[in-house]
Amino acid sequence: MSTRRDFMGMALGGFTAAGAIGGLYAAKRTWDPLPSVKAAGSTVIDLSEAIEGEPMTEKWRGKPIFVLKKTAEMPAHDRDVVVDGARYHVSIALCTHLGCIPAYKKADQTFFCACHGGVFDTSGTNLPGLPPPSPLEIPPFKIEGNTLVLGSEGPEYLEMKKNNLVV
Amino acid sequence: MAKIDEKAFPFSKQWLDDRLALTTVMKVLNTEYWIPKNINFLWAMGMILAATFGILLISGIFLLMYYVPTVEGAFDSVNYTIMTEVGYGWLWRHIHGIGASLVFLIIYIHMFTGIYYGSYKRGREMIWISGMLLFVLFSAEAFSGYMLPWGQMSYWAGMVITNLFSGGSLEAYGLVEWIRGDYVPGQAFLGRFFMLHVLLLPLVIIGAIVFHFATLRLPHVNNQDGEEVDFEESARLWKEGTVESRKKSEVIPFSPVFLSKDIFVMGVYFILFFYLVFYNFNFAMDPVNFDPADGLKTPAHIYPEWYFLWSYEILRPFSKDLGLIAFAIAQVIFFALPFLDRSPNVAPASKRGLFQIWFWLMLVDIIVLTFMGKLPPTDPAFAFIGLVSAVLFFVLWAALPFITMFEKKIKE
User: Does A78 touch chain B (CB under 8 A)?
Assistant: First the structure.
């Protein structure tokens, strides 16, 4: 008698658990980014419009992107994107602390985040002793002539990624 | 089948009692639910919270009828349709905004009353824990509601708070994107926070309120001196009904006696409430949120609503990982209060020696953190005060078990 009850109990419990797990999986998938969101992929940036020392803000996957054509006196860095001999700093313009947009301060030549006081130099490197734990992130890019395609990984990006320079 | 009175007139008292035990229910919930006499106006905060929640629910229902949960439509549906077109739409919005703000003021008073009088231990632990659960749920409700007007502060608060889930160096950006349903807050994010705000969280909150009431039932409400009241004897005296015996009884029934005291305090509270609604509604309206959400422009200075400022300030002065850990601990540490307080005394803080100092330091520290959290991060003097206050917050919690362990026992 008790074994038959146990069997009924286990069968009911087992099917309920399977249903619950399936339901949780469906709930998790419902919250995933939609395919249309994921597919809204690449942005093309025309670098001929860049002015030395004046960062442009572009948009890629809803995130702002800094493109700063470096002046001669701005220090060069391995994180620079070099196109036609000109050096560019390209990064996702979200502070690596909690994701606010830093503003470029022309006088100091730094990116300053007003949320918690983080500061990045013109290579996107975070200054020490402040909340951001890492430099501004470099988005996947591919150089095509005088344009930059964000969202696909060109050889220059892969090289940087190999050297752990992108984040 | 229970015995019924065949002759009872339909829906008469007897008829309802035979079917619903209505008289018994009224006794259990109202006329024979005993509250100690030895209390003050701070004991009215619970019913004030219940009333404020009711007002938030009603004003929310009216706002829901015109609010449009889309990234294109949300801002205008609030700031144009509800505010200018809908008859008295402004009234619901201002009631909802002021209510959301004041509910936290009262929650904090309610919490610190409990801490001051030791109403969280010796059988009252579940009251405290269910109350803290309500605090967390109200925080989630407030945050999700703050997203809905889809202004600049909504958007950037959504950005920053969801980023917290990346866990610092854990770099769990997959989790952040999953919570948002997008790389940045967008339609998927607004849609799900809308659902949470208007359906799931209110349902859970109502359940948690019922549970919070239930936790009071056995240990009873505490009183001003933490005395053990003989509820059975006092209830007997009250029910005896003579002037003498009621005078001798240490308790009053919840309804109508305690409620009439509550309603007086509520009256005072609602004067403040409606003063703010009609004459000072900007108190709960951040000007930055009157700019539509723009993912390409962070406001110059972002900060949460005043009731989250103290925990925000705990996050701010540290490096990212340490800040996140500090923030996470600050969110849950109050849950542990009944277990960190090692003293058996249930008494007002004024009779508990060092604990009295602990209580006032904690209260002042949280107020200082609140003020510092509102200031921009640039001023080094204020940043330093913020750091000291954040460190003090943790020092106080670490010290609590020790200062209470050696506390003199007041009574057997």
Answer: no
